[in-house]
Structures are given as structure tokens and as C-alpha cells.
Design goal:
5 helices, mainly alpha, single chain
């Protein structure tokens, strides 16, 4: 009986509503991160939006290139177009990767950087001090970031 229920659940979730699966998983992930730390949602949303926009720009460029090539252009023009569009896609990829790695680095190493700036300030007798950031890092932040990079690449 239990096996039938598991199969029924699997059937409903994946086959009856396939267009909603990714949205449900995204919403569940956001709720999970909100329950752990509301501050971590900024990282999650920024990464999600950055990866989505980068991937969308890469795909639009790919489709545009294909449409132009399908119109029937000469071989030399085709080579130039492919080279130009490859450079554009690489730029979108680099922007996406750098933005999410920068956020990852800031979240993981912010206190390390603050401590070093404070140490340098004290060495030069400069009278100011940055306060350490106290946030709880999202579980699997590095894994999530590298999965996002893998999706873009």
C-alpha cells in the first residue's frame, strides 16, 4: 500500500504539473532559507536573478545568431558573426560568474577583511574601527554558487 502511495505522489508531482516543478522547488528553497536566516535571502535572490539574467542573455544571443545564420549569409560573414557572438556570450558568462563569486566571497570572508582593515588602521594609529558582521551563512552556500556557475557554463 505504501509503495502505491509513493508512486501516486511521484505521478502527481512530476507528470501532472511538470511546468510547476521548478517554481515549487524555488519557492520551497526560499522558504527554507528564510526560516534559517532572513538575511541570507538576499544572497539567494541575487544569485538566482544574476544567473537567470546571464543565462537568458546568453540564450538570446545564441538564438539571434542562429536566426541570422539561417537567413543564408556568406561563409566569411558567418565566421565573423560566430566569432563576435562567442565573445559576447563569454562576456555575459564572465559577468554572471564574477557577480555571484563576488557575493560568495563577501559573505564568507567579510569578517576576515574587516579584521585586516582594523588591524592596518591600528598599525597606522588611525582612529576608526569597522564592526564585524554577524550573520549566519546559508547552508551549502559554496555548493549553491558552484552549481549556479555550472548551470551558466
Amino acid at each position: 500500500m505504501e509503495k502505491k502511495l509513493n508512486n501516486l505522489h511521484h505521478l502527481q508531482y512530476h507528470h501532472l504539473f511538470p511546468q510547476w516543478v521548478k517554481i515549487v522547488l524555488l519557492i520551497a528553497s526560499i522558504i527554507f532559507y528564510l526560516l534559517c536566516s532572513y538575511k541570507s535571502i538576499i544572497f539567494l535572490l541575487f544569485t538566482t536573478v544574476s544567473v537567470y539574467l546571464s543565462a537568458l542573455a546568453i540564450e538570446k544571443n545564441r538564438i539571434k545568431e542562429k536566426n541570422v545564420i539561417d537567413c543564408g549569409i556568406e561563409l566569411e560573414e558567418k565566421k565573423k558573426l560566430k566569432k563576435k557572438n562567442k565573445k559576447i556570450r563569454k562576456t555575459y558568462l564572465v559577468i554572471g560568474v564574477v557577480s555571484i563569486v563576488l557575493v560568495l566571497s563577501l559573505m564568507k570572508y567579510m569578517n576576515f577583511m574587516i579584521d585586516n582593515v582594523n588591524l592596518l588602521a591600528s598599525l597606522f594609529n588611525i582612529d576608526f574601527k569597522f564592526n564585524r558582521v554577524s550573520w549566519i551563512l546559508p547552508l551549502g552556500i559554496s555548493f549553491y554558487t558552484f552549481q549556479a556557475i555550472g548551470y551558466l557554463a
